[in-house]
Amino acid sequence: MLRQVARKTLLALPLLFIAVFFLVPLGLSVAISFWERVGLRVRPAFTLHSYAEFLSGVRFAVLERSLFVAAEVTLAGLLIAYPIAYVLAVKASRQATRLVLLLFTIPFLVNYVIRTFSWSYLLSRTGPVNQALIAFGLADRPVDWLLYSDFAVFIGLLTSYMPFMVFPLWLALAGIDRLLGSPPLASFLRITLPLSSPGVFAAVIFGFVGSFGESAVPIILGGTGYQLMGNAITSTLDVLNYPLAAAMSSTVIGTMLMLLAIWYLAFDLRSFLGKILRWRV
What we know:
By secondary structure, the chain is mainly α. A two-stranded antiparallel ribbon has the order 1-2. The protein is globular and about 65 Å long.
């Protein structure tokens, strides 16, 4: 009896935490998105004005750009992360796999804003990248488009979220049994790739949602006026337009929840974890 009560209590604590610090703020954000702005104040109401302003104004172009950039970063991250995860799951030893996965976690010990600022130095006119291009004769003067451009934002987002994509891909690939005697390419196309699809979709969620709602990278590497959804919401809050900011935030959160719902309904969690649950030293 006491054991059952202890289990229910341990289960209730994280559920209560999620309810208080996630569901309640989320509900408030959705509710405020339907309120009216009256001068510098907001008034409870039920109107779609904020959503209409968001979808018909210049911020809709920010939404389109954010979707395109997020899809671009996710695709590039997937093309880089999948081979890395495949080698770690299939070819590398357990010791090497642990070491590489540990190395992927080390950058997250540094604040991501600081890591992003490091790219602003690397890509600057006097930075190492431009110096290398000039030294190898690939450019006769510093290249200006490396920083404060779409390219810089792409690099910043890719390096920020691609490491997150490696872990679910490795988790899915490590749980797939290999078919001995089958040609490698045929085995990959018929067995490995389909069975790793839950990990692929999970990696897509990590890359797409993170890039879609990013705020620091476009400010630091995109320069003045470069906006994605994250810093567009911040700039809307700066002018005290809380209903519009809430509508934009609800759109981002709705996109994230939709992707999570598709992943949950389309894939069996056991097929994602596979035998990795029984992986031992």
